[in-house]
Amino acid sequence: MGALRNPKYERYAFERALLTPKQQAVEAAGFGAETSHGRRSHASRLDRMPQVQQRINELRGQDEEMLREKRARLEERLNVVAFGDILKDCCTINEKTGEPEVDWNKVIANGLSVIISKFKFDKETGQLTDFERDRALDAIAQLRQLNGLDAPKRIEMTGKDQSPLIPDVTDEQRVKALAVFLAKLGKDATADSQ
Is the pTM of the predicted complex or chain greater than 0.85? Predict the structure, then answer.
């Protein structure tokens, strides 16, 4: 089939092949839906188009390219979580209170909203009082694992009672074992060793 002629349809199909949620795929494809309802409508319309569905299935069959793209997106997200700094990039100090204040428009503009995992609001005023971010050290550990930079795993060389996993075998026992093995194959151990 190949790429769809409409670049927005092609981008939507690509995003859906990557398992991007429908509304985010609509947004990434550049459809101008301002509301959640508008994005859902666009997604429903696109999902009913046979050529779009066919292209999604075709793209899903391109395993290497899809895996490469998924890995790149995962790495990008983990980098934001690991190294994104809301305080440095999006805060100012309130002159009256001396407390940091987050400019949430800057958080969104800098792509840092993905690292916020929890909000706390004041019940009476509705004002944001606190937030939690994803754990940067966990993201760094996942990046290290993703890039094969983990420390080597420990391999136990002894049994539970500290005895060797491979028992000590004498040369005489090895010769006997080899003779039995070769006899099963129909060969003479003494003839092969000369």
Answer: no
